Amino acid sequence: MNRGIPDTLENEENDYKRQVKKFYEKMKDIKMKKETLAHNERENQQNRDVYEANKENWEAELKKKEGERKEAREKSKRAEDTLRLRIGKVSKWLPINYGP
Q: What pLDDT digit, counting tens, does each position of 82-94 carry?
């Protein structure tokens, strides 16, 4: 009976030590997860900042390209109109050829 009490106390002490060890391991895991999440959030914020900066550049480039396309369409239309006018003037002066 004398040995029963120390054994029980020793078992309880060992159980307590295991629980404390598990607690510290879990706290360490939680700390690591928090640090990982914080790191990922910083990375995401940097990516968002880069994206927003690039987005502004993309919008400016898109407007520039749209302007170039509009200008090219206008030039093409003017060239077609000029060509039509020249063809119209030339056809008035050329004799009509009805076969060989």
A: 888 877 765 555 5
CA–CA gap between residue 62 and residue 68 (Å, rounded): 10
> Which pair of tokens denotes residue 4?
């029963």
pTM for this model (two decimals): 0.47
For 59-76, write each residue's pLDDT tens digit.
889 999 999 999 999 999
Query: Residue written as tokens 């056809």?
Result: 91
Distance CA 9, CA 46 (A): 55
d(CA 87, CA 93) in angstroms, rounded, equals 10
Distance CA 51, CA 43 (A): 12
